[in-house]
Amino acid sequence: MLMLGFAGFMGILKIVLMALAAFALVDAAVRREDAFRAADKQNKVFWLIILGIALVVSILFSILSILPIAGAVASIVYIVDVRPALRHVTGGGGYGRRRGSSSDGPYGPYNGGR
Question: In terms of pTM, does the model score above 0.85?
Answer without folding.
Answer: no
